[in-house]
Automatic annotation (TrEMBL), chain A:
Location of the region described as Disordered in the Swiss-Prot/TrEMBL record: 224-244, 345-399
Name of the protein described by the UniProt record: Mitochondrial distribution and morphology protein 10
Family: Belongs to the MDM10 family.
The keyword Mitochondrion appears for this protein: yes
UniProt KW Transmembrane keyword: yes
Composition-biased stretches (Basic and acidic residues): 359-377
Pfam families: MDM10 (PF12519)
Subunit and interaction comment: Component of the ER-mitochondria encounter structure (ERMES) or MDM complex, composed of MMM1, MDM10, MDM12 and MDM34. Associates with the mitochondrial outer membrane sorting assembly machinery SAM(core) complex.
Signal peptide: none
Keywords attached to this entry: Membrane, Mitochondrion, Mitochondrion outer membrane, Transmembrane, Transmembrane beta strand
UniProtKB/TrEMBL annotation, chain B:
Assembly description: Component of the ER-mitochondria encounter structure (ERMES) or MDM complex, composed of MMM1, MDM10, MDM12 and MDM34.
InterPro entries for the chain: MDM34 (IPR027536), MDM34_N (IPR058825), SMP_LBD (IPR031468)
Compartment(s): Membrane; Mitochondrion outer membrane
Protein name (record): Mitochondrial distribution and morphology protein 34
Gene: MDM34
Main subcellular location of this protein, as a coarse class: membrane
Organism: Trichocladium antarcticum
Membrane topology field: Multi-pass membrane protein
Family: Belongs to the MDM34 family.
Length: 454, 549
């Protein structure tokens, strides 16, 4: 589950038209989130609120043996009016879904202020009027601070947009146990759609880094970026007649990163490539990545697929050519539209007032089919979430999914199970880690997170 | 005399190497490892070699059939070797990130991917040169302590010998680590090994190092061993073992306590920490609360030397008094008597500070006898007491009569201006006003009994005191600096208390002091009231420290 503040920060990026996925850091985010999802530990309660469109607060209380907590505040210079912040309204996929679809590169810097104005042609984004109207909005900034209480650890984040393509992030941690009392990380992000470059500097060890991502193929090719081309794609999708559209249609991205610690005289680097299908692709959405660390001889390949809209799968294989060590892991995500309470208490789904009585039955069968890997039940509602996900605000009223089950397994026979969903107006996340190697006490961790926001 | 050290039987024992390997492995994995080491450190090979170390006997402190204590000079340049195996993280970025907070992590995509490399390190050509203190006893096993840093040089060869930088780094790091191991861990390891050899029954008890509770006993506890005697570790000691023990056995000497009494004493101590009203009854022990003024001690033994202290105390009438009663019952050398010391300050705040300090620490710290006679201006802080006390407890000079006289003579001058010495008397007469140690541990019954003979008597007759005081007043004192007086007086105090070092009873002495001081104060007050003229023309050259404020 993404934390509320993370969700609000994402909403800020969405409101300012910043594509946070267009960096090298997020190259394999899909597989990572499907496989390496964090498991909650202990009990954790979060009480959050988007008090005004500019201001959000969040209080967290946790207990893992000892009671701890945190207080966080967030201020955005951009009003986050359209954001569903109440926990009974938040679209669950925005909070829980791991599979990331590619954003439209051409539209990412226009969608925000063109939502109000009338949309024009793509290359006309640099028209003086449009820029003038949006210039002050591009000067948006976000301030975020969080204080962990017993540890007195302070986190701070400043995000500032300077131009449509330039954004600076400054994050800092202050704690007594750290060397020099804390660290500071500066991140300069330059995103031109077709390519994105980041430079970073950390006070810790004097680390400097550069990473970049370059997109090619698919919609970034010159003829594809024009609106008529996009229209033909969608039109052909609608028709479903053209055989050439059946072939995989996606975008290639490639990039690399270099780090160097000026104080400890050490460094690191990696190269990576990704292929991901675009939303316009008709077939199964998939993402495949390959990263190579030439210094350490590490090769990492991952493959994630959105098999159905309620089912995502991912695998990852790592191999080191120097030490011959290898690792594999698989992850899975299953969405359910049943009530979580029905799961929990075995209650009659008919007691739920809103939905029609018959859909739960059908969903129940389909879920069983999913569990048995028998996908023979064609789900009539499967195509719908495409629309709901593209417009999360409207999806809040008529929500499809109520819970998601995530599971992972790695080569050490460790299983992570996470079940997240909504119970009335609470969003919960129940997770456990199981180690089959140690059958004496297989449960390595158990945790429950409850989030309420208003 | 000849010693026969066998080196080869150690190595001939097949089990020995296994045990030593296990012990070394656990010792190496005990402390938290740096993030660069991602696996346990395993000792795969360990060999002591065939060349024994050269031992040169410097001193033998104790020698008997079952115990030995000596100091050696050891030189070793043999063929022992040690091979360690572990796995290290070769990616510097990975180790860099592992200790950093995630919020400011640069979050590299794959640049921090881990590469673990098995590492094998062989330590050989170890050259040692050290002074070793060896203490052996059958009860406590073998203790071996290095007097200095024993490691002279060693050769580190590893998987990365071809890389100069890594080799140097490893050499440096391992040398430092090994020095730590030699100084801290090796004595413990050897101790455990020896325990396994000689007294396997004591091993579980040695999780904590034995406390050095032995030395504080100068009393012979073996004269009347308790029925259920236990040693310092709470282990039962049989009567046969008791008879074997000797008092002057150095570190091996066992202290014997009655287990029941120990239990009760610890209950009693524990009850002071809480608000528990439970008071266990400890046999043969007199509690301070019972020790009122009515406690009579042997009248025959009245050392007049203790009077100066007491005579002087009322002279600070009107000023704030702080009495620090030191408890030396728990002192290591046991030579200090449990004897209250008085310290006076001219300001109430100083007195208060002392009082509060008493609540915190006075009951537990190793006490110093502090007699602070300086004025407020000269006493900077309480901390100075420590310095002064340390110098006070220096070598004892023989008591000299004039010094005592000066000390006595201060009294009337102060007294003259301030006729309200009765407050002091009240203070002394009321035991509840007196500072008391919150906990008085090691109230030893033996000490208490023996104290009857030597504790100064309360029966110091009033007549003696009163006659003494004016008699000394008639002498002309030379101006003596207050510090001198303080030091000298403290010395005298120390000196006087030394004879009854092991036998003094704090309780009785305090009671006696209370009574004496009250009595003297009253006498002086009466005397002054009766004959003010005598007090006025008494002295015109007061010691500078006691000039009127």
């Amino acid at each position: 589950m993404r934390e509320f503040m993370h969700y609000i920060t994402n909403a800020f990026y969405g409101a300012t038209g910043w594509n946070e996925d267009n960096t090298y850091k997020a190259l394999n985010a899909t597989a990572r989130e499907l496989i390496d999802f964090p498991l909650p530990r202990g009990l954790r309660l979060t009480l959050s609120s988007l008090a005004t469109p500019h201001f959000a607060t969040s209080y967290q209380l946790g207990s893992v043996g000892i009671v701890d907590g945190s207080i966080s505040y967030l201020h955005s210079s951009v009003p986050l009016t359209g954001v569903a912040a109440r926990s009974d309204r938040i679209p669950l996929p925005a909070l829980l879904r791991s599979y990331r679809r590619l954003h439209d590169l051409g539209a990412q810097e226009r969608q925000w202020f063109w939502g109000a104005d009338e949309p024009t042609a793509g290359p006309a984004a640099q028209t003086p009027a449009g820029v003038g109207a949006s210039l002050d909005k591009y000067k948006s900034s976000l301030l975020y601070g969080r204080l962990y209480l017993p540890q007195s650890l302070l986190e701070g984040l400043v995000v500032r947009r300077f131009s449509p393509a330039l954004q600076v992030q400054l994050s800092a941690v202050s704690e007594r146990s750290l060397r020099n009392g804390g660290t500071l990380l500066g991140l300069v992000q330059y995103d031109k759609g077709k390519y994105g470059v980041e430079g970073l500097a950390s006070t810790d060890g004097g680390l400097l880094g550069v990473r970049g991502l370059y997109n090619f193929g698919g919609d970034t090719s010159p003829q594809a970026v024009t609106p008529p081309a996009g229209q033909t794609y969608s039109e052909s999708n609608g028709n479903g007649q053209s055989a050439e559209r059946d072939r995989i249609y996606g975008r290639f991205s490639t990039g690399g990163e270099v780090y160097y610690g000026t104080l400890n005289k050490s460094g690191g680097m990696s190269l990576g490539a990704r292929f991901a299908t675009l939303p316009a692709h008709r077939g199964t959405p998939l993402t495949a990545t390959l990263t190579i660390n030439p210094l350490m001889g590490n090769i990492d390949a991952s493959y994630a697929v959105l098999a159905r809209d309620y089912c995502s799968l991912a695998t990852r294989v790592e191999f080191n050519v120097y030490s011959y060590e290898s690792e594999w892991a698989v992850g899975m995500e299953l969405w359910s539209n049943r009530r979580p309470a029905g799961f929990l208490l075995g209650a009659d789904p008919n007691s739920q007032p809103e939905p029609a009585p018959e859909p739960p039955k059908r969903k129940e069968r389909s879920f069983e089919a999913k569990m048995e890997w028998r996908l023979d039940d064609p789900d009539p509602v499967a195509p719908e979430p495409f629309k709901t996900e593209s417009e999360p605000a409207s999806a809040g009223s008529k929500e499809e999914y109520r819970g998601v089950l995530k599971a992972r397994l790695d080569q050490n026979m460790r299983i992570g199970l996470l079940w997240e969903g909504r119970l009335k107006s609470l969003i919960f996340s129940l997770g456990t880690g199981i180690d089959f190697r140690k059958l004496g006490e297989p449960f390595r961790s158990l945790g429950l997170e409850i989030q309420y926001s208003s | 005399m000849a010693f026969n050290f066998n080196w080869s039987p150690l190595t001939a024992d097949a089990d020995f190497y296994d045990r030593a390997r296990d012990l070394l492995t656990t010792a190496l994995n005990k402390s938290p490892k740096p993030p660069i080491i991602v696996d346990d450190i395993l000792v795969t090979e360990f060999n002591l070699g065939s060349v024994p170390p050269d031992l040169e006997i410097l001193e033998i402190g104790d020698l008997a059939e079952d115990r030995f204590r000596g100091i050696f000079k050891m030189c070793y340049s043999g063929d022992a070797f040690l091979t360690l195996k572990t796995r290290v993280q070769a990616n510097p970025l990975n180790t860099y990130l592992s200790a950093k907070p995630g919020f400011t992590s640069p979050q590299p995509l794959a640049a921090a991917s881990s590469l673990t490399i098995p590492l094998q390190i062989t330590l050989s050509e170890i050259k040692l040169s050290a002074f070793i203190i060896v203490v052996f006893s059958k009860q406590k096993g073998l203790t071996l302590v290095f007097r200095n840093d024993p490691l002279e040089s060693l050769k580190v060869s590893s998987t990365f010998d071809s890389i100069q930088f890594v080799r140097d780094y490893l050499q440096r790091t391992i040398e430092a680590k090994l020095r730590d191991l030699m100084m801290d861990e090796l004595p413990a390891i050897i101790h455990r090994l020896s325990l396994q050899l000689w007294c396997p029954d004591q091993i579980p008890l040695y999780d904590e190092e034995p406390k050095e509770a032995d030395e504080e006993h100068a009393v012979n506890p073996l004269a009347t061993p308790p029925l259920d005697a236990v040693d310092a570790n709470g282990q039962l000691v049989g009567s046969a073992a008791i008879s074997e023990l000797s008092l002057d056995g150095g570190p091996e000497s066992q202290s014997l306590f009655s287990k029941k009494n120990l239990q009760r004493l610890s209950d009693l101590t524990g009850s002071q920490f809480t608000s528990s009203l439970f008071t266990p009854s400890v046999g043969d022990v007199m509690f301070r609360a019972w020790a009122g003024p009515s406690d009579k001690v042997d009248p025959a033994n009245t050392p007049p030397l203790s009077t100066p202290n007491l005579v002087r105390t009322p002279s600070y009438t009107g000023s704030a008094h702080a009495y620090t009663f030191s408890d030396s019952g728990s002192q290591v050398n046991g030579s200090f008597a449990s004897r209250p010391s008085l310290s006076s300050f001219n300001s109430a705040t100083a007195g208060l500070a002392l009082g509060s300090g008493r609540h915190n620490k006075a009951g537990r710290k190793k006490k110093m006898r502090v007699v602070n006679l300086r004025r407020k201006a000269e006493t900077e802080a309480n901390s100075e007491q420590g310095d002064e006390a340390s110098e006070v407890s220096g070598p004892a000079t023989p008591m000299s009569e004039p010094i005592m006289d000066h000390a006595v003579l201060e009294m009337p001058e102060e007294q003259s201006g301030l006729p309200s010495s009765s407050t002091n008397k009240v203070r002394f007469g009321r035991p509840s006003d007196l500072p008391q140690q919150p906990r008085r541990q090691s109230v030893r019954t033996e000490a208490f009994k023996a104290s009857d003979a030597q504790v100064p008597s309360i029966k110091a007759s009033d007549a003696t005191v009163s006659s003494q005081v004016p008699l000394r007043l008639s002498e002309k004192p030379a101006p003596v600096s207050a510090a001198n007086i303080a030091a000298a007086d403290a010395k005298s105090d120390w000196k006087r208390s030394k004879p009854m070092s092991d036998t003094s009873s704090v309780i009785l002495e305090q009671a006696w002091i209370m009574k004496m001081a009250g009595e003297i104060a009253r006498r002086v007050y009466d005397e002054k009231n009766r004959n003010p003229a005598f007090w006025d023309d008494r002295d015109d050259a007061p010691p500078p420290a006691y000039e009127a404020r």
